[in-house]
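Escalated from tier 1: norvaline holo job.
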Amino acid sequence: MLFAHTHFLADSQLTRQQLIYLITLAKEMKANPQDYQQSLAGKSVVMLFEKPSLRTHISFDIGIQKMGGHAIYVGQQNGRLGVRERVTDVAKNLSCWSDAIVARVFKQNTLEELAMFAGIPVINALSDLYHPCQILADFLTLSENFGDLSSIKLTYAGVANNISNSLMFMASVVGIDFTLFCPKGYGPDSLLFDQALDLAKQSNASLTIINDTKLIGEQNVLYTDTWISMGDNSSINDLEPKLYPYQLNHDLVKKTGATAIMHCQPAHLGQEITRELFDSNYCLARQQAINRMWVQNAVLFALFNNK
Ligand code: NVA
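Tier 2 regenerated the structure:
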């Protein structure tokens, strides 16, 4: 029982050994998909999405189908969870028929409540706090490109959000040196940062927040995401002047010596990243998208097989 989890809700809940196990399993499933064609046979997975999705929706749907399972998508037509009926009751009803829930929600609490009352595995498909499936795919991508994860220096540039939180936790658990390069006032929640610092101490990783480009130093990988996440009502006109110094562009790549850049997508070209860099050979976004399906299949396999 290496994974030994009932749910997949947050990166911070996993050990280094469990993360490496999931990445290794995803690699094995990617290399030998024929061996897993029936691994979800007879299983139905409900996908509850309170927010829009392209990659997560489609990669889960096709991934489940490739393992012989059945995916049912419930989109935004029913409004936010907890409005028409309690989240508790949604959870209890879904578990009458389905074998797992994949959920994209406005609030992490909604996932916790689903998990508490569903009695079936719940997987975080993005919340306000975390996007663990994305970051697991990103770490598979890093492993494919760099081999040893613990020697990587990774900087996230932009606004702290669900992606940077998950990166910060997974980097701290795995032992990657992680820098958050963001304007003052746009860093992570201090409780989450302190929690990640504790994990980083245990793995001997460094975890730093910087506001000034002079402090960035040499990096292997630069990562960015949208300046305005789904559910955030900030105005782009207010943000742009503060955030342009944190844009991913060829100058920053040259300054840091990074050999790869990453983006979870959707990309806002000309804002958090230039079109030239996003479309260049530095960009691993396509490989990240490919790997979404394999890591999610690994998570489903591990949850259903009590691994
Ligand atoms: N931070 C972004 C990630 C999208 C995949 C959002 O929450 O909208």
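The chain has a mean pLDDT of 96.
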